Amino acid sequence: MVGWRVLEAFLPLGIIAGMLCVMGNAQYFIHKAAHGRPKHIGNDVWDVAMERRDKKLMEMLSSPSTPN
């Protein structure tokens, strides 16, 4: 009898886990369709500002400097 109760518990758990996977994939594909590329995880305003700063610094360092 205990085995049947465990089986009864796993069925709803499997349905819930499956729906979470479906919703996660739906968000991914909707975002990709709307923006043309996947969403960058954890890329907030601060990260974007730091990427711009780093790119600007690298361009300044790589450009040939003219002696005065």
Sequence-ordered SSE layout with sheet pairings:
Layout: H1 2-35, H2 45-62
Could you walk me through the main structural features you see in this protein, from its secondary elements to its overall organization?
With 68 residues, the chain is an all-alpha fold. It has one domain. It contains two helices and no strands. It has helices spanning 2-35, 45-62. The chain is elongated and about 85 Å long. The protein starts with a helix and ends in a 6-residue tail after the last helix. The mean pLDDT is 88. This is NADH dehydrogenase [ubiquinone] 1 alpha subcomplex subunit 1. The chain crosses the membrane at residues 6-30. It is a single-pass membrane protein. Pfam families: MWFE. It is found in: Mitochondrion inner membrane.
Cα end-to-end separation: 89 Å
Gyration radius, rounded: 25 Å
- Tally of separate domains: 1
Tally the helices: what do you get?
2
Q: Helix proportion of residues, in percent?
A: over 70%
Percentage beta strand: under 5%
Quick gist of this model?
The protein is 76% helix and 0% strand.
Short key terms for the protein model shown above:
single chain, 68 residues, mainly alpha, 2 helices, elongated
